[in-house]
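hey
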């Protein structure tokens, strides 16, 4: 009987009558004195959802791939193929490592083809 009473109290706390409507106004306060109050996660959330950043990103998005991203992709895949080639050599040309090498090379080629 006691457990049912506490369950009823919990449901009454979260009834729809006690829910407050969210405010329509968005305020951004990035003053230095509030940085210490928010902590790491508070600053992270603010940096993600800050209105000025959203406006900045939406005005500067351009179609296509950035040259720096393409260069990073090419360097990463080149290094991956070098590592897989070395691993294949060290494992006496293991079939699974050779297949990973082939799949990685095909993936790199398909990504280059889609960018061009």
């Amino acid at each position: 009987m006691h457990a049912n009473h506490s369950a009823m109290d919990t449901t009454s706390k979260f009834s729809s009558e006690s829910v407050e409507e969210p405010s329509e106004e968005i305020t951004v306060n990035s003053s230095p004195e509030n940085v210490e109050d928010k902590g790491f996660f508070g600053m992270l959330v603010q940096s993600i959802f800050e209105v000025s950043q959203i406006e900045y990103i939406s005005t500067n998005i351009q179609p296509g791939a950035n040259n720096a991203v393409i260069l990073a992709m090419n360097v990463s895949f080149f290094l991956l193929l070098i590592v897989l080639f070395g691993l294949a050599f060290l494992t006496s040309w293991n079939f699974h490592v050779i297949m990973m090498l082939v799949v990685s090379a095909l993936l790199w080629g398909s990504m280059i083809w889609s960018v061009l």
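Residues 9 and 79 are 61 Å apart (CA to CA). The chain is about 70% helix and 0% strand.
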